[in-house]
Amino acid sequence: MSSRPEIEVCETAEEAALVAAEAIASWLAAGLDENSRASFVGTGGSSPGPVYDLLSTLPLPWDQISVTLSDERWVPPTSPDSNERQLRERLMVGEAACARFVPLWSDAPTAEDAAEAAEAALADLFPADVVLLGMGEDGHFASLFPGSPVLEEGLDPFGGSLVIAVPAGDPAPAIERLSLTLYALKQAFLTIVLVRGEAKRRILEDRDDLPIHALFRATDMPVRVIWSP
Ligand code: 6PG
User: Fold this and answer.
1) How far is the CA of 173 from the centre of ligand 1 (A)?
2) Calpha distance 50→53 (Å, rounded)
3) Could you tell me which residues are beta bridge partners of residue 73?
C-alpha cells in the first residue's frame, strides 16, 4: 500500500459525511452478501457524528452487523467525553438500533484490565469490514499518539493484540484511553479516514513520519481519505 492514498476532496463537511456514510453502508452490505455477519469500527471526536446520523437512517440488516470503536476514553459511557456515548446516541438509534455493540470500556478496575476484557469480546469482529477513523493535527488516529510510551506497541503491524491501554501523557492524551492497535485496524477490508481543514491536509500531503502514515504503509486493503475544508 502506498504511504499516501489519494485524497478525495469534498466541498463541505456535510458532503464528506455523506460520501463516507454511503461508502460504509455499501461495504457493509457487500460484506453481508458474503457472510452472515459484518462488522463496523466507528471512532470518536467531532468528525464521525454526522456520519453516524446518516447511517442510522439507512435500512441495512443492522441485526447482522456488529459495531465497536477504534478507541475510547477511560470514562464511563455516561460521560460527555465518552465515544461510546456519542455512538450510542447517534448511530445506535433508528434503523441501526438493533446492531450489536461491543464496547471497549467496561467497569474493570484499570484500563489494562478493560483492554484484556475487550480483547476477548472483540475477537470475532476482526477482520472488520469497515473502519472509520479521524486524524488529529499531530497525525494520530484512534488513540495512537506521537510520543506515547505505548506507540511502538500500538503501531506494531504484527503485534497480535487488538486492544491496548494508553496512559495519559504530555502532549496527549489528556485522559487515559483504550485503543485498537494497527494490527487490528490494518486488517479492515476498507478504511475511511475523515479529515477536515488545511492543517490536516498538510499532514497528509507533506509528512510521512506520523502514526497515520504507518497505517497507510501497513495495510494492503483499500484506504479512502475523505477531506473537506
Ligand atoms: C477520539 C478519536 C480521535 C479522533 C481524532 C480526530 O477519541 O478523540 O478517536 O482519534 O478521531 O482526534 O478528531 P476530530 O474528528 O474531532 O478531528
Assistant:
1) 11
2) 5
3) 177
Domain count, the chain: 1
Question: Rounded to two decimals, what is the model's pTM?
Answer: 0.98
Q: What cell does 224 get?
A: 479512502
- Do residues 219 and 128 touch, judged by C-beta distance below 8 A? no
Using the mean position of ligand 1's atoms as its centre, give its distance from the Cα of residue 135 in Å.
6
Containing H/E element for 118?
helix 111-122
- Please work out whether the CB of residue 173 comes within 6 Å of at least one atom of ligand 1: no
**Distance (Å, rounded) from C-alpha 200 to C-alpha 206?**
10
In a domain, 17, yes or no: no
Residues in Cβ contact with 26 at an 8 Å cutoff, skipping those fewer than 6 apart:
none
- Cell 476532496 appears where? 9
CA of 133 to the centre of ligand 1 (A): 8
Q: Which cell numbers hold the place of 106?
A: 467496561
**Number of CB atoms found within 10 A of residue 36's CB:** 7
Tens of pLDDT, residue by residue over 21-75, are 999 999 999 999 999 999 999 999 999 999 999 999 999 999 999 999 999 999 9
Domain limits for position 213: 44-228
**Does ligand 1 lie within 6 Å of residue 135's CB atom?**
yes
198 in any annotated domain: yes
Please check the confidence at residue 118 and state whether its pLDDT lies above 80.
yes
Answer whether 186's CB lies under 8 Å from 71's CB.
no
Residue with cell 453502508: 25
Q: Are 176 and 148 in contact (CB under 8 A)?
A: no
**Is the CB of residue 64 less than 8 Å from the CB of residue 27?**
no
